[in-house]
Automatic annotation (TrEMBL):
Gene that this sequence comes from: asnS
Subunit structure: Homodimer.
CDD domains in the cross-refs: AsnRS_cyto_like_N, AsxRS_core
Pfam family, one: tRNA_anti-codon
Catalytic class of the enzyme: ligase
Protein name, as recorded: Asparagine--tRNA ligase
Length: 430
């Protein structure tokens, strides 16, 4: 019977066949240890000279890295490996022999690995990161679907900018000028007025000249938007959502977390509610810590965020930033018009901002005033004003950056390893 490595636990003591690739190999005169992978997982195959034909043993000893093959044998428990099972190989058939596979078990430099990203994805570590990414996406759909949200897909080609015009990718749209979406938010606000609670999941693009371990040019964002929900309601959805995702990864990706040597005790404590600190308090805290490069009214950089996050063992909300350093659509605090009802959620362990969110301006006159201040004119923005004309309601939303969340939960240093084919400042290939 043909099975996958993932299904092996259900076939102990049975003779089965698995189609896979040779990831690595060790052999002596009498025994060959094959590290097999088949996409669903990694498992050891043992070929004992005295148990197989001479031809099978010779073939096993001569296998080259990344050769594709069918292996047949009995699945047995193996308490020494993390996976817990191995195969006593009785037969093998080479499908395609790979020669001179460039990524050998020795260490390679990052640029070399990035040039070979199409092959690097096959490695055990990258496999584990992609499985965690997949689990975060799965848990996201589960969370929002079970909490009454409708998935809505905003456009990717757009005429408007939600997050400022300096980081837009321009493209031709026949005779018009268009951009690649920075955020689906403006469209999700329209959708929330039609469907109540909505969420999107899609690629977004930022022509940011940032070369840091947290920035991608193309990244994926989850953007919920909720009618009749204020800032406080939104913070509660955010902490419940993030806790749900973390616990799902702990539950369903135990093997992958082990492969990545992730300290899971740090993730186990991620349960709502999360601590909150206002922007004002954060500035005071940073000054006390000796940061003399920050003044009220300035945005925080990565070192500031990390210093704040270090005081907590859960993600922390920094709330109520100055209006002038945030987007045009954020609702001012009714008690203080110089700050807005917004929050950034900062992940622990130095992984930075994973969510940006806010309550949106619902008053037409104030939105018109912001349009003037930000010079927003033309058909690309007119429709958005109409949401404040016809039955405007309090509403809030947020955006979670998928790759930064994958980096945090996987414990990988750089976001380039959290997306299959990263787009970076200096990289559009492979
Ligand atoms: O804080 P941002 O810019 O917020 C928005 O775009 C809002 N319109 C979202 C909303 O309210 N619907 O981006 C949201 C998140 C950030 O917290 C971060 O996790 C991620 O998107 N992000 C990036 N991730 C990787 N590379 C980049 N260049 C990123 N820029 C933002
Ligand atoms: Mg932000």
């Amino acid at each position: 019977m043909k099975i996958t490595i993932q299904e092996a636990p259900k076939h102990v003591e049975e003779e089965v066949t698995i189609g896979g690739w040779l990831a690595n190999k060790r052999s002596s005169g009498k025994i060959a240890f094959l590290q097999l992978r088949d996409g669903t997982g990694f498992m050891q195959g043992i070929v004992v000279k005295s148990d197989v034909s001479e031809e099978v043993f010779t073939n096993a000893k001569n296998l080259t890295q990344e050769t594709s093959l069918y292996v047949t044998g009995k699945i047995v428990e193996d308490t020494r490996s993390d996976f817990g099972y191995e195969m006593q190989v009785s037969d093998l058939e080479v499908i395609h022999e790979a020669t001179d596979y460039p990524i050998t078990p020795k260490n390679h430099g990052t640029e070399f690995l990035m040039d070979h990203r199409h092959l690097w994805l096959r490695s055990k570590k990258q496999h584990a990161v992609m499985k965690i990414r997949n689990e975060i996406i799965r848990a996201t759909y589960e969370f929002f679907n079970t909490n009454g949200f409708v998935k809505v897909d905003p456009p990717i080609l757009t005429g408007s900018s939600a997050e400022g015009t300096t980081e837009l990718f321009h493209t031709k749209y026949f005779d018009e000028e268009a951009y690649l979406s920075q955020s689906g938010q403006l469209y999700m606000e329209a959708a929330a007025m039609a469907l109540g609670k909505v969420f999107s999941f899609g690629p977004t693009f930022r022509a940011e000249k940032s070369k840091t371990r947290r920035h991608l040019i193309e990244f994926w964002m989850i953007e919920p938007e909720m009618a009749f929900m204020d800032h406080e309601d939104s913070l509660q959805v955010q902490e419940n959502y993030v806790s749900f995702v973390v616990q799902a990864v702990l539950e369903n990706c135990a093997l992958e977390l082990k492969t990545l040597e992730r300290d899971t005790s740090k993730l186990e404590q991620i349960q709502a509610p999360f601590p909150r600190i206002s922007y004002d308090e954060a500035v005071e805290f940073l000054k006390e810590k000796g940061f003399d490069d920050i003044e009220w009214g300035e945005d925080f950089g990565a070192p500031h965020e990390t210093a704040i996050a270090e005081s907590y063992d859960k993600p922390v909300f920094i709330t109520n930033y100055p209006k002038d350093i945030k987007a045009f659509y954020m609702k001012p605090d009714p008690e203080r018009s110089d700050v807005v009802l917004c929050a950034d959620l900062i992940a622990p362990e130095g992984y930075g901002e994973i969510i940006g969110g806010s309550q949106r301006i619902d008053d037409l006159a104030l939105m018109e005033q912001r349009y003037k201040e930000h010079d927003l004119t033309g058909p690309a923005y007119e429709w958005y004003l109409e949401l404040r004309k016809y039955g405007s309601v309090p509403h809030s939303g947020f955006g979670l950056g998928l790759e930064r969340t994958v980096a945090w939960l996987s414990g990988v240093e750089h976001v380039r390893e959290t997306i299959p084919f990263p787009r970076l400042l200096n990289r559009l290939y492979p």
